[in-house]
Amino acid sequence: MNGPAVPRHSGLAAELASEIRVLAGRLKRRLREHGGKHDLTPSQVSVVLRLEKDGPAAVSALARAELMRPQSMSAVVAQLLEAGLVRGAPDPDDGRQTLMSLSPKCLKWLRAGRAARQDWLTATISRKLSAREQEKLRTALKLLARLVEE
After folding, report:
1. Mean of the pLDDT values across residues 88-99?
2. What angle do CA 62, 64, 65 make, to 5 degrees?
3. What does residue 102 show for φ and ψ, rounded to 5 degrees?
4. What class, spelled out in words, does domain 42-103 have in CATH?
5. pTM surpassing 0.90?
6. Cα–Cα distance measured from residue 41 to residue 97, given in angstroms and rounded to the nearest whole number
């Protein structure tokens, strides 16, 4: 009995896929190194980024969004509160709930980290690549962007 057809990929496509994956990981690590030091856990970072993207949310909504138990999310949020990175305010629609949002300290920290990563990458591109190579990189980035289009 024959199963579904397995797509055949060229050896070059497989090689490129592997190289992109490895380089993306290395670039991510280098950017993280230059984005400022922090002692946040991956769960804490995820909550901060979700609040930044989606806006204020109750702990229960954060738990659902992050696929965590409410008790676990409460612990994550408590640590962020203690660090001064989030703050709570009564939900205007349901005073029994507290909406968590990013503190000014956290917003400043996010901006500073992004600026540091941008500065490092800009300086590295300028230092290591000629103007012609930078144009080639622009072309390669257009191709990479096509790979992630929906």
Report:
1. 90
2. 65
3. -75, 140
4. mainly alpha
5. no
6. 25
Q: What local confidence, expressed as pLDDT, does residue 7 receive?
A: 64
Going from the C-alpha of 28 to that of each of 51, 78, 93, 103, 109, the distances in angstroms are 22, 28, 40, 26, 18
Cβ 109 vs Cβ 44: under 8 Å = no
Given a contact cutoff of 8 angstroms between Cβ atoms, the answer to whether 74 and 59 are in contact is yes
DSSP state of 6: P
Query: Minimal CA–CA distance to 110: which of 19, 36, 14, 25?
Result: 36
CA 88 from chain centre, in angstroms, equals 23
- Are the beta carbons of 109 and 48 closer than 8 angstroms? no
Residue 8, Ramachandran bin (φ over 0: left; ψ between -120 and 50: alpha; else beta): beta
CA distance 95 to 142: 48
